[in-house]
Amino acid sequence: MNIIYGLYANPEAAQRAVDALRAAGSHLKFDERQIVIISGEPHEGYDFADSHLTTRPYRWAVLGGCIGALSGYLLTTLSQKGYPIHTGGMPVTPLWTNGIVIYELTMLGAILTTFIVLLRGARLPSFKSTVKDPEIWLGKILVGVAEPAEAARPELEKCLLLAGATEVKLSSG
Amino acid sequence: MLPISSEARGRMQRTVEQIEKDLLQPIFKSSVKYKIAVSLSAALVLAGASAFGYQLYNGIGVWGINSPVFWAFDITNFVFWIGISHAGTLISAILRLCNATWRRPVTRCAEAITVFSIIIGGLVPLCHVGRPWLAFWMIPYPNQRGIWPNFRSPLAWDFFAISTYLTGSTIFLFLPTVPDFAAVRDASKGLRKRIYSMLSLGWQGTPRQWQRLEVAMHIMAIVIVPVAVSVHTIVSWDFSMTLVPMWHSTIFGPYFVIGAIFSGIAALILAMALLRHFLHLEAYLTPLHFNNLGKLLLTTSLLWFYFTFAERLTTWYGNAPPEMDVFWTSIRQSFSPLFWTMVICNFVIPVPILSIKRFRTITGTAIASCAIIVGMWLERFLIIVPALDHKFLRYAWGTYRPTWVEDTLMASSFGMMALLYLLFSKAVPMISIWEMKVGLQPHGGGIITTAPATKPHGLVLEGPLPTDVPE
User: Fold this and answer.
1) How much is the pTM?
2) DSSP for B108-177, written as a single string
3) pLDDT of A90-121, one tens digit each?
4) Theoretical Cys-Cys bridge with B113: which of A160, B19, B88, B214, CB 3.0 to 4.6 Å?
5) Inter-chain contact B212–A114, Cβ cutoff 8 Å?
6) Domain containing A114: what range?
7) Inter-chain CB proximity A136 and B230 less than 8 Å
8) What residues of chain A lie within 8 A of the CB of B163, using their CB?
9) Inter-chain residue contact B208 with A52, CB threshold 8 Å
10) B6-61+71-137+150-440 in CATH: which number?
11) Looking at this predicted complex, what is its ipTM?
């Protein structure tokens, strides 16, 4: 993947770069999905970071909990029916004790769903080669454009530098 | 306002580069002290493995358990280690939910304790079943034997509770480690780079990934707190659901949970003190963290005493003969030396140390924690053995003496904990690098913040820095 990117010392500069790239997108012929932002830490309170805010994982966790509860209910009731003992109509496993198993499986359902939703939402695991710059781990924020048109590169470089990039690089691979 | 040491003052000016360098260093370099610690703990584990091999060859009869004491060191160790597991995930989750910014260097140390102590706690019943290769019989699935787990038994509840807690705690530990795995990946070469590439799952650090990670951690923190409470409550029900004297008690659930948090915090303080020393994390695990955890430890020590007193007073006041037999055997008779050692270790030693600010230092909290670890192991032992020794029928009373096999297995469980923890510290940054960097952001709360009791969480210190805290 070819990426032209700038490194920014602070999130304010990174936000300026993202805004500039969004504004320049139409005439430099790239769309917003081609804008790449990478940092070594989360930055809350900036549009480039908060545009991904969502409450969907919470709802998925609740759904996972419900599925867990249903599994717990089925496990306890089906195994009760599977017991090879005769109880004269008495319950083999009373509701209270089933409730404990159902509770634990509810929680397990919520936990596993959260994990799966995170992996899916964050698009992990992903082993595609991507841009890696050691400066990211030293506090810099990378903002760039993936697969830019050849003719647009000088303009992009200028755009990134104007936003306050400490340096502009081209990564190919 | 809480005073800040000069060490902490220096740390506030710490840069991202320093954090990255300091916290990755233990992964790439090992000190002689570290190697000695690994060798000693590995030797203990080897001794335990040999004792276990001897037990497998000769049968469970090589243990000191016999009628009527069928649970002794093994279940003591089980309850003790499951209790220790409450150090991490529960405390970490509560501090995350409270947005207590001082938690940042502490959480991973704590979460790792949880995962390893649950694993060790879970291994103990496997040893106790005698034929561990048949342990899969406990898993509920349709089978030709026509055997189902008894869902009425608290031991079956344990299986579900501990499995859920282990799964949740492992995920809770793993999720915030992924970005740090990526940091190690990008700082490594060769085989190490390939291993960390897999562990980091291809983490890049896009805003979308960071946002999803934070939401997932928040959900996990919400879910894991009730799970942690349920785990030790269910462990207590292993005892209180039976009609053994002094076990059939409604107080056992909260009593066990408090005891677990108590021993867990002590284990965390001890682990942090050792990590600080062995991995040279003096700039990150500061007196402030020990001071704050020391306050939590003091609170739980007082709560532990309150529960112990309430439990004993209720029994004494009821004066039921079978219960009084157990009561007096632990307070006045054969088990009294252990009982009073427990009281000294869990209350008499820690309370003065932790109450007086001058003593609530790294050394002071570590000494109190050592005493508590011993005291809480004794507490578990004293709940189990005297009650089984002195059940309702006097002719069936018995005695229990541990054998060298049980002693060795117990010692090796501590060795295993140390070994797993040390190896983990070699593979993973023991302090979350990215969370420490967030602490440097203007609104990230700072690495150093005021104590929760003195100012709202998350506020960065403003104005001139106050005087030092004596260590």
Assistant:
1) 0.88
2) HHHHHHHHHHHHHHHHHHHHHTS-GGGGGGGS----TT-----TTSHHHHHHHHHHHHHHHHHHHHHGGG
3) 777 778 888 999 999 999 999 999 999 999 99
4) B88
5) no
6) 56-121
7) no
8) 104, 108
9) yes
10) 1.20.1630.10
11) 0.92
